[in-house]
Amino acid sequence: MKAWLCGLDDEELMSVSSVLTFIGIEHSTSFTAFQLPDFVVIGQSIESIELDESISIVSLSETLSIIPQDNVWFCPLPWRSQTLWSILKEIQQRRRMPQPSGVNLNLHVRHLEALLIRQALVSAQGVVSKAAQNLQIQRTTLIEKMRRYNIDKSEF
User: Which of 33, 53, 83, 112 sits most deeply, having the most CB atoms within 10 A of its CB?
Assistant: First the structure.
């Protein structure tokens, strides 16, 4: 599954990213990262949004003016795994996606790598050379990985 993260503040982004990475859901703050995400996570700061009705929405706030409203779940942080799993199962059933039959190790490694890069950039306050040093990789390697994962240093 793929998720677009929209309007999340830094604290929400860290919390949501770590949970989605842990359960193996590809995610990005860039809407263009995926051709069509399976669902969108909306931050608390977003008051209203209008999306294609085929995209499911998980809102971190308890109130949100959304059009349409038939595939919206309100799930404020902190997320409980049982609650999130039930939402994701419903989203999968609505999308009529086949259940995965195994674990995609490459996908998990990419998620973990993207998460570690984001955490390094946060701790280095967006300074790429310092983040690369913290990750013990070359600066050019980090830049290439940031391109691959659609990570923009200006986010940090």
Answer: 33
Residue with tokens 């993260």: 5
DSSP state of 79: P
Q: What is the DSSP letter of 31?
A: G
Q: The pTM is what?
A: 0.55
Question: What is the number of helices (H) and of strands (E) in the chain?
Answer: 5, 7
Enter the tokens of residue 27: 């995610």
- 73-95: pLDDT as tens digits: 888 888 776 777 788 888 877 76
50's enclosing H/E stretch is strand 48-50
**For residue 23, what is the DSSP state?**
T
CA angle 123–33–44, rounded 5-degree value:
60
* Cis omega (within 30 of 0) for bond into 100: no
